[in-house]
């Protein structure tokens, strides 16, 4: 046997952390050891108010009893069942609950283990759907600048965040991008949806004419672009995208990995904006972030296009070992129940105006160049330090953590998306602490 290397259990070197400044973290670790309700506990025993619902995923807050119990029971009862050619009741039950919760056109759910996988799944379904209908020439995919669709090859190809793409070669071919919708000169400090920019959707018509509309399979957008720093769709923008897709037989995919499960004050962004895509990609809040799980919601028209040929044949050559995993399914069911019990999927609409007023109270503080909000999501954009982009927001993040709040930063944008159980005092604490931070950083 080849040599082995002893490593102390608390050594930080081995774990190559995702989307993290590894050297900075390991020089001054921010270690979380417990969580309950709206708070994390740090290794040194401090309480941190969760201003980000973990990573936009713990919508019901932490350590929710129904979810904890469901996972424990499921692990005892049925730990794993093969996902291919076999089934177990909870995956079917979750698909039923999920499609019941979704707008009526969505009758089918395909389970994955993450948002990234759900994106890949939706893109593949789009291509295969057209082929099944005899339109195999529709091979092009359209995304949008500044879009985030996870980290796998399809997702980074249609995505538009430059550092996520530039290190990774040629990506998928046949992909084009719409312009992003950030128009700070016209829309800065807008409350809710910005007035200006609906015409940016017409880019899709230009792209369609450039390549031939009959070659385009699908357009994928986040209805509200979260990871890039909370860019809200201009009024009328999503409606126009829908119209152009309809005109040319192009599928519209909403990536609702962040907006799904109540973030905007409605179950899905499709409800909030009253625009129906052909597929919805979701994850995160599906299990309250507790167990990895994602899903693609599809209409009957899409699903049924595959249900042809001999009945013993697999209709879609796609799936994951853990698609609809029993423990994830149990967590999903308990999560949806918790949301329903506490009315959380519409809570953002109730407390949203308090949140909006609190956030916009930061206007005029040092470095603040824009504030954006909707439902229980908000962003504060800072002017970058000349020659050192991202440094100012990162300092804000570190100082905020020191002062007992968890925020997130992308570039020089601070994003917040607290659990949907947040109360008014906690909103005051979150925004009040951020105000102190903004006054203290360089
Ligand atoms: C809109 C969107 N799509 C996809 C993803 C990827 O999800 P995951 O990190 O679960 O793969 C994310 C994650 O933040 C997201 O915000």
TrEMBL record:
Q: Per the entry, which co-factors are needed?
A: pyridoxal 5'-phosphate
Q: Which GO terms describe its molecular function?
A: adenosylmethionine-8-amino-7-oxononanoate transaminase activity; pyridoxal phosphate binding
Do you know which PROSITE patterns this protein is assigned to?
Answer: AA_TRANSFER_CLASS_3
Q: Which InterPro entries match?
A: Aminotrans_3, Aminotrans_3_PPA_site, PyrdxlP-dep_Trfase, PyrdxlP-dep_Trfase_major, PyrdxlP-dep_Trfase_small
Keyword annotations for this protein, in alphabetical order, are: Aminotransferase, Pyridoxal phosphate, Transferase
By its UniProt entry, which Pfam families does this protein fall under?
Aminotran_3
Name the domain of life: Bacteria
GO:BP terms for this protein? biotin biosynthetic process
Similarity comment:
Belongs to the class-III pyridoxal-phosphate-dependent aminotransferase family.
Cross-referenced PANTHER family, in alphabetical order? ADENOSYLMETHIONINE-8-AMINO-7-OXONONANOATE AMINOTRANSFERASE, BETA-ALANINE--PYRUVATE AMINOTRANSFERASE
Protein's recorded name: Aminotransferase class III-fold pyridoxal phosphate-dependent enzyme
UniProt organism field: Halovulum marinum
